[in-house]
Amino acid sequence: MAGTILLVFLFLKFTMPSLLPSFQDVLDAALRLEGIAHRTPVLQSASLNAQLQAQVFIKCENFQRMGAFKFRGGFNALAKLSQAQRQAGVVAYSSGNHAQAVALSARILGVPATIFMPHDASPAKLAATQGYGAEVIGYDRYTEDASAKALQLAHQKGLTFIPPFDHADVLAGQGTAALELFDEVGELDALFVCLGGGGLLSGSALAAKARSPHCKIYGVEPEAGNDTQQSFRKGERVKIATPVTIADGAQTPMVGAITFEIIKALVDDIHTVTDSQLIETMRFYAERMKMVVEPTGCLSLAAAVQAAATLRGQRVGVIISGGNVDLARFAQLLAS
Ligand SMILES: *Cc1c(COP(=O)(O)O)cnc(C)c1O
């Protein structure tokens, strides 16, 4: 028994590094996504550049298919499945955007999909996920462990579980957004990335280190949910209670294991911003750039504005992660 445990431990210890994706995986994902994902625009705002006295390049994943970068990782993961795995189907859990990403990718590839979504998920995200043909099962995000439920169903029905962030193929797919940004604008001095479980940040970091080695890479979390900042400072993953924040895409209680390994190695720091900073940023995007950006998608620019004094004269990248917010909620947040 002890021998078996030791063998399993040694196996994991020595195979773990090979489970970590590399920049090559991001390049491979980009090939899979070519002609399927949108190559989203990179926009600038003269008034923002003037305000920050910097050149800010905004990668607009709010214009990605299904409204967020998550399509990249979801599609990459599903495209890599074997024929048998595709036939059996996939299962995922998500408060919204990963659900839509898996549902849309599954529809494109002809794969049956079951998605666990919280009862209080945004009605727009719920409707979109069902609209793509996925079967949706509800759960309580504050009391139930959606990951355990999804894994259990995967086990019972022989489905493949597609995690929202802690998966090599998912995070490699997410990295293609930053890859496109660097390929379009060249090297940057700093890159700000919205952060929940770390799929977008770790994938972006792989792309940034390869395309712009001197670029500082910052993840941005809501202040109420600073689990990755705590983890980063401590050097080990810290779990918190599900945070209460308007940034519903970043309500993860703990950063991923794989994503954290990459974040520890490649990311320079983790910033936090408050919900009121997110609302201010939503207003800026709507008024000045005519864009609807969901609260979580505002994390990156809110942190860049907060750090303005350190960014003067620099070339700064900001990734908007998504734009899926119910119009009524959008109006309500802007009125507050
Ligand atoms: C999922 C999501 C995030 C967080 O991404 P991670 O890969 O979990 O860090 C941020 N913004 C939006 C809009 C999302 O859907």
Main sheet specs: 6 strands, mixed
**Which residues form runs of ≥5 with pLDDT under 50?**
none
* Class inferred from helices and paired strands: alpha/beta
Helical percent range? 40-55%
Q: Gap between N and C termini, in Å?
A: 60 Å
Q: Kindly state the number of beta strands.
A: 10
Shape: globular
Query: Overall pLDDT, averaged?
Result: 94
Bound molecules: pyridoxal-5'-phosphate
C-alpha Rg (nearest Å): 19 Å
Q: What order do the SSEs take from the amino end to the carboxyl end, as H and E?
A: HHEHEHHEHEHEHEHEHEHHEHHEH
Tally of contiguous helical segments:
15
Residue share in β-strands: 5-15%
Describe this structure in words.
This protein is of the alpha/beta class and 336 residues long. It is globular, with a radius of gyration of 19 Å. Helix 10 links the parallel strand 7 and strand 8 (216-222). The model has no long low-confidence stretch (mean pLDDT 94). It is 50% helix and 14% strand. The longest helix is centred in the first third of the chain and has 18 residues, at 2-19. Helix 6 packs parallel to helix 7 (123-131). It is built from 15 helices and ten strands. The strands form two sheets. The chain has a six-stranded mixed beta sheet, with helices on both faces. Strands 5-4-3-6 form a four-stranded parallel beta sheet, sandwiched between helices. The structure holds pyridoxal-5'-phosphate.
